[in-house]
């Protein structure tokens, strides 16, 4: 019986943890790859998207990558600006741009492939469910 309570507690903790999105927190980094090396941080319950901003500002003279937790609605609203602001200038070194990318998988940094899934959370939930099924089977005497 103690084992059953333990497995249920672990399964509930996993569901709560897997439900929270984790975004990499990056500010003013030079490359997307550099941002991908930063550890993911837990987003709040209301933040269901990671927002990536890739921009070039002529005054600073470099491209920057920023990534942080956001709401999906805000992310979509700024992503709508891409048709106006996301033009990398086709080789013009003084052309300023800002591109906004939204994603909703743990640790993602846009642009990402559509439909990517968080396999880690899926596998943890699957393992917890399998362990619970085995314990229930053993408790029932099958």
UniProtKB/TrEMBL annotation:
Keywords, comma-separated and alphabetical: Signal
Signal sequence annotation: 1-20
Domain of life per record: Eukaryota
Keyword Signal in annotation: yes
Descriptive protein name: Uncharacterized protein LOC118421059
InterPro entries on file: Snake_toxin-like_sf (IPR045860)
Species the sequence originates in: Branchiostoma floridae
